[in-house]
Amino acid sequence: MKLATWNVNGIRAREAQVLELVERERPDVLCLQEIKAPPARVPASLCELEGYFCLWHGETAYSGVGLHVRRDLAVVAPAFVHPPFDMETRIATVDVPGATIASVYVPNGGKDYAAKLRFLAAMERWAAEVSAAGRTLVVAGDLNVARTDRDVHPKERKVGAIGQRPDERALLEALVGHGLVDLGRAADPDNDGLFTYWAPWRNLRQRNIGWRIDYVLASAPLAARLTRCAVLADFGTSDHAPVVAEFGT
């Protein structure tokens, strides 16, 4: 199985690039975030992505996620679900053979930090329930928290900065603590320049002055089959890079 996740920062602006990513990587599961469009405004070429069962869950000009499952992976159309804590079209989940997969866009917290903490806490409780039920879980997307200082370039580190605060990091660690593995770090443990987001000014991306806030978290049994987890840092014009995780049989 191969999974790709990408915060596109506007699906209409990134239509051709999403198609290019699908053609290049051929993921079995595609998770998109910050689509900034209701289903009716998604470009026609993506609305029914060839070869996939597709869900678009978004609002005009704000937030939103996509979740797409290759028809080879699911024999019949799977049921896409939004957990009760969903707000502002920020999470969609699907059960595929052997796993529950979530495409997630956590609030950045700049306008309502308390809402971000509530969302993270609710997601942690939901993950606990999924794990307790014996399901393999994959959480993929823009979680808007850098796990440690190492996941932020030294020039971007700031005490008290949202995305780097102890309370939000603790909630992310609690989520990971339900038997999940951070595949990006597991695949590249010694890389101090492993980032997925770069603010769109001062050539920060070209200088690799960024943050790692986009993740694929997977239950340990699935993580043990990981063969590749790559940040496609040179791909696309979003301020985030796609992350691709591939698993063996």
The CATH topology label is Deoxyribonuclease I, Chain A
> Largest sheet, if any?
6 strands, mixed
Q: Give the helices and strands as they follow along the chain.
A: EHEHEEEEEHEHEHEHEE
Individual helix count = 6
Strand residues, percent: 25-35%
* Rg estimate, integer Å: 17 Å
The total count of strands amounts to 12
The main sheet orders its strands as: 3-4-2-1-12-11
Low-confidence stretches: none
| CATH architecture label name | 4-Layer Sandwich
Q: What is the average per-residue confidence, as pLDDT, rounded to a whole number? A: 97
Helical coverage, percent range: 10-25%
How many individual domains? 1
Instruction: Give the overall silhouette.
Output: globular
Distance, first to last CA:
8 Å
Structural class estimated from helices and strands: alpha+beta
CATH top level label: Alpha Beta
What does this structure look like?
Helices cover 22% and strands 28% of the residues. It has six helices and twelve strands. Strands 3-4-2-1-12-11 form a six-stranded mixed β-sheet. A six-stranded mixed β-sheet has the order 5-6-7-8-10-9. A hairpin with a 2-residue loop joins β6 (91-96) and β7 (99-105). α3 (113-132) packs parallel to α4.
Any key phrases for this structure?
6-stranded mixed beta sheet; alpha+beta; Deoxyribonuclease I, Chain A; 12 strands; single chain; 249 residues; globular; 6 helices
